[in-house]
Design a protein that fits this description.
By secondary structure, this protein is α/β, with parallel strands linked by helices. The protein is 33% helix and 19% strand. It has two domains: 244 residues, Peroxisomal Thiolase, Chain A, domain 1; 151 residues, Thiolase/Chalcone synthase (Peroxisomal Thiolase, Chain A, domain 1, 3-Layer(aba) Sandwich), CATH 3.40.47.
Length: 413
């Protein structure tokens, strides 16, 4: 029998709140974190809006020297990890350090230092580059730095699968515990790509919303007038533990992780497979892993990017996989409030899924005004819904055709 894995700690840094309580309060109230970009001058940019993390002070989590030196995605990861550890009540010591691991993904990593280094190289020459350019640019440094900062010496890894990175990271951590290679894992994703290069690159791909004069209504997943996603930033980190270990230390248990599935589209570098066929196979794999039937799922936390193809094909995938039960599902997209946090988004959304189970509440999809005939599910429009949620599914799909699905269940002994 497989080892049971539970969630005992939650850490969030997001455009709608820092810490699980502020995050959930804003999410369940339908508060929007999208506004005009303040991190750089957007004068000549087609898109000038984003979901920035507000009121983030790295000095709350790092000493002054590190707070000045570390790049933003690493700062977010450390902050969210500390929040998750504090929330869990787990103390890492010499006695258990080898049994606690870290898997933190990032879609892009330290794009801010890459960007500044390129200008330094051009303007001042190679001898003026910072020695920290490579260490802070590479995506695995969030996982590396978190393990150093908290003293976790167990399995350590980084998953890079674009917008599915956070979800894959949690799934891999779940499997690491399940097979007995660790007793606890800090897992999730971190991203900070609201930079000139980051935003301009997505603009060039024509992926972003240009609703610059109305940022509060720019992200509108599954709605007829959607016209692109809104880039966001942040981090989501969970502490996963083996059930026996969690019970032995009398930890509070938020929910149980019961399934993980993934697949590849083998179709296109950015467009989903027609009909969401790849997503369907990932859902099948997750439910097989959990040994449950589709009818047992109550709520789907959708990838829901607010792009024409993603929302259409994700809807088709849900309808194909769940059949008649799709009409009974509550389906919603947090990106309507947070924007798309890229490699962090799946982790933050899995935290939202866990809190949905804890609170028996499906958060809303805000900005849902005009229904799209091709997106015809129950998207929990504009207001949260109190409802029994025993099992929740969280979907993530990334450029390159990476699909990842997680399932969580209300904990019962």
């Amino acid at each position: 029998m497989s080892k049971r894995v539970v969630v005992t700690g939650l850490g969030v840094v997001s455009p709608i709140g820092i810490g699980k309580d502020d995050f959930w309060s804003a999410l369940s109230q339908g508060k929007n974190g999208i506004d005009k970009i303040t991190l750089f001058d957007t004068t000549n940019f087609p898109t000038r809006i984003a979901g920035e993390v507000k009121d983030f002070n790295p000095g709350n989590y790092l000493d002054k020297k590190e707070a000045r030196r570390l790049v933003r995605f690493i700062q977010f990861a450390i902050a969210a990890s500390q929040l998750a550890l504090t929330d869990s009540g787990l103390t890492i010591s010499d006695n258990n350090a080898n049994d606690v691991g870290v898997v933190i993904g990032s879609g892009i990593g330290g794009i801010d230092i890459l960007e500044s280094a390129a200008y330094t190289l051009r303007d001042k020459g190679p001898d003026k580059l910072s020695p920290f350019t490579v260490p802070f640019m590479i995506a695995d440094m969030a996982a590396g730095y978190v393990s150093i900062s908290v003293g976790a010496k167990g399995p350590n890894s980084c998953v890079v699968t674009a917008c599915a990175s956070g979800t894959h990271s949690i799934g891999e951590a779940y499997k690491i515990i399940q097979r007995g290679a660790a007793k606890a894992m800090l897992a999730g994703g971190s991203e900070a790509c609201i930079t000139p290069l980051g935003v301009a690159s997505f603009c060039a791909a024509r992926a972003l919303s240009t609703r610059n004069d109305d940022p509060q209504h720019a992200s509108r997943p599954f709605e007829a007038n959607r016209e692109g996603f809104v880039i966001g930033e942040g981090a989501g980190i969970l502490l996963l533990e083996g059930l026996e270990e969690a019970l032995a230390r009398n930890a509070k248990i938020y929910a149980e992780v019961i399934g993980y599935g993934m697949s590849g589209d083998a179709n296109h570098i950015t467009a989903p497979a027609p009909g969401g066929e790849g997503a369907v196979r990932a859902m099948q794999a997750a439910l097989k892993d959990a040994n449950i039937s589709p009818e047992q799922v109550d709520y789907v936390n959708a990838h829901g990017t607010s792009t024409k193809l993603n929302d259409k094909f994700e809807t088709m995938a849900i309808k194909t996989f769940f059949g008649e039960h799709a009409k009974k599902l509550a389906v919603s997209s947090n990106k309507s409030m947070t924007g798309h946090m890229l490699g962090a988004t799946g982790a933050v959304e899995f935290i939202a899924s866990i809190l949905s189970i804890v609170n028996d509440t499906a958060p809303p999809t805000i900005n849902y005004e005009v229904p799209d005939p091709e997106c015809d599910l129950d998207y929990v429009p504009n207001q949260a819904r109190k409802m029994p949620i025993n099992i929740a599914m969280s979907n993530s799909f990334g450029f390159g055709g990476h699909n990842a699905i997680l399932l969580a269940k209300k904990y019962s002994p």
